[in-house]
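Okay, is this right?
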Amino acid sequence: MSNVQAFLNARGVFRVSVTNEGARNRYDVSFPRPTGGVGTATFRDNVPSSFSVYKEGVTYAGTPTAGIDKLPPQAFAAAGLNATLTKALRLVSSHEAKFDGINSYDKAIFSFGFIQFAGGSVSAGQLPNMLMLFKTKQPQMFQQAFGQYGIDVVASSPRPNVLVWTENGNQASGDDAWMYIMRNKQLTTAFIAAGNSPICMAMQIEQAAVGYIFPALKMNLDLGALGKVPASSILRSEAGNIALIDRTINMGGGGASKLFAEAVNTLAPRASLGQIQALSDQRILQQLVSIGTARNDKRIIDRMNSIITGGYSFAK
């Protein structure tokens, strides 16, 4: 038996039932849970969203048992995260998904996990990096979760390259691989199953830390005549740090840096560095809400408001 046939046979553990609901298809799937027993999930394609690109893509928020609230503080401490940074991840995940969540209908092609690590190259997302971290640190668990089903990841530049064997005996790579995984609901289900693994959860947290949280706290803002100024020297409160992390995860470092620079430059266009650093973080976040309103961007509006009203400290 060829390796490809072995991969196809192994995928049989993921049972997929399809029901046409008119404009959409409903998929009822079952899978072996990494911790034992059988799990189930239901998701639908043709997602009614202004961000929809692929009709065959689906959305799945995840199962309650794969929520970030189920993890103890030690799981975050192991990735070098203190209480404030843990709060940031909990907030972002509340707007995104569970550890087994899937979105495969927008330009990112395939996004997975509690902060929706994106796969497609257009998004320059961190999903290939997370898989590479998983394979490097936990090779046996990676084999069980992905390798035995014909999914692999290899080192490449500017980020790791994901590979998948197709039923035609070809190995798709990069965006073609993500397109294949998006369309193949058995492999979509393989990711849901993996997201229920405590090891995969730990790898997601670690990748969130190295890929988003630590870079967010090192982000520089272009403040014109003042040059490049570290954002964390301005937004020093718990709420301010959480906002930096949230926007970096959702928008990427470049987009977040421009957004915060716009807010600061609008509030204090000719101020000294000392005056800018004395700005209330709450005022800066309120300015972000104003920018989000002008852009008609509910993600900025809703998330910044959730921080402002969420009981987080604004003390610097």
In short: Residues 218-308 form one domain. The chain has a mean pLDDT of 95. The chain has two domains: 3-210, 218-308.
